[in-house]
């Protein structure tokens, strides 16, 4: 703790994020080759900071915005009946009054008196996360010191308090970002109340750190796997794998790409975890009647081949502003095999996004289950980023 401090930026090394994600249709293959799902490394996200005002502790304020939609229909939609994208209809939506999945809690540094902090960004708003050693709570504040607007993410915890690396001011997350130590201040002097952080509402639910970006106090709780996921509510019964990756394209493109199974056989032909060009075929895609609203929609899909065999659908749900869930029984009701996935798409900055991908599966043979449990993480990383690299080459052009 008393050793010479080195800025995280100077220590930081960029890594390629390993990832294996082929979209909805490849999840079927995932049931036979689940062990190829990776655990990537993390890398810094470029962010912007705004100068702090001299006002007392408060939550940041944001303007409203709207979510444009190509349709407002609530009747079933098949792949042949999708309305024109030229539709001028819109669905009002406040992007700021929402919870955003910032990171998996397991990706944060282990709590200690001198742990490093974690920079994040939502819509270009630079913030910093840190975890208390005393109670394990995760705190979030704007990434700007109220003193000279230095980036707090360049600092670290000292004696359990967030310390600015510029002048050594320390802030207490448990006391709503209150400044409790200024080295240059006389011991008898009082610290100004305005010398505090702009804190964000932050909660950890089911291992995911959520940040509220709204103007006022949260009106809802962070999303959970409950409800629509049904049998997956009790995640303790499933083998789970979490990983996240930052991508060089916009949040909107990320969501569109993940709900598009039709490109898999073409774009990822002969790619491990991808598809085969000769298997490109029609899809039966249905949006559930009455499900479409500003909060999202539910539906299901299957290939023409699966339809001819009267095969099961893959069910999916989109929950605004960026959660895609799916579940299925790839071998039918007679098999104990069940899989599910939750994909959290977060807007970092303009042209950059983050994906948090969680998979869960049950009903595997005991030997395969054991092999998956014992497989070293580094083996799952081999060649695992190729699919998203292939997507990025097309999406960013």
From TrEMBL:
Residues 40-57, 66-83 have a biased composition (Polar residues). One of its GO terms (cellular component) is chloroplast. Keywords: 2Fe-2S, Chloroplast, Iron, Iron-sulfur, Metal-binding, Plastid, Transit peptide. Residues 40-83 are annotated as: Disordered. The keyword Cell membrane does not apply. It is found in: Plastid, Chloroplast. SUPFAM superfamilies: Bet v1-like (SSF55961), ISP domain (SSF50022). The keyword Acyltransferase does not apply. Residues 99-211 form the Rieske domain. One of its GO terms (molecular function) is metal ion binding. InterPro entries: Cholesterol_7-desaturase, PaO, Rieske_2Fe-2S, Rieske_2Fe-2S_sf. Its main location: plastid. It comes from the Eukaryota. PANTHER family: IRON-SULFUR DOMAIN CONTAINING PROTEIN, PROTEIN TIC 55, CHLOROPLASTIC. This is Rieske domain-containing protein. It comes from Helicotheca tamesis. The lineage of its organism: Eukaryota, Sar, Stramenopiles, Ochrophyta, Bacillariophyta.
